[in-house]
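Format notes (please read before filing issues)

Several people have asked whether sequences and structure tokens are stored in separate files. They are not. Every record keeps both together, in the order shown below: the sequence lines, then the token lines. Line labels are part of the format and must not be stripped during preprocessing.
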Amino acid sequence: MKKITIAIDGFSSTGKSTLAKQLANELAYVYVDTGAMYRAVTFFAMNNNLIRSDFFDKKALIDSLPEIQLDFKFNPDLGFAEMYLNGQNVEKQIRTIEVSNFVSKVAEVSEVRSKLVEQQQEMGKNKAIVMDGRDIGTVVFPDAELKIFMTASAETRAQRRFDELQQKGDNVSYEDVLKNVVERDYIDTHREDSPLIIAEDAIEIDNSYLNREEQFAAVLELVNEVVKTV
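Then the structure lines:
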């Protein structure tokens, strides 16, 4: 069967990663969570006191980029690859609300985006890849055979994120999660470098009222249609 590149973009907490993992498992494709890469850089900045609520030393972060080594290592027990930062598994640490509060600011930095986009393009040079993020169909793989753009209401996404954090034992309020979702939406769509926009040839999916199984079935059908035509 012909191998293609699948680019999944969209707003935060729309289930991009869940869908991408489902597709990668079904198709035996490589899955790359680009959001985890930006979160790992953010985690590095936080650990090195380069960013706080009232402070962000962008120059120091840019100067530190050569020190940041990112790797995905497959975990057979989980069925997907986990994020490693300089040899340390940081998959759990990068999913906190604290990292979420800063990740969009870090992702605004052009030098950070340039470094990660270069790595992402190298990962996908042989196709047979599912990659999700904010600029996959517009910047990373503008020639991807299938582009999906996922959206849902801010309230729906905040509730999903809140439920996920609660299940992990994180002590957060729905109001804080909703505030974070709205703030990230604004930053992602208004940054100068690679803002979150819908690619002209992307298929938009509003999953506010779709469950995971319905969404997966709909997108898998799109994949099968595209594969037949390439």
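For reference, the curators noted about this record: The first strand starts at residue 5 and ends at 10. The mean pLDDT is 94.
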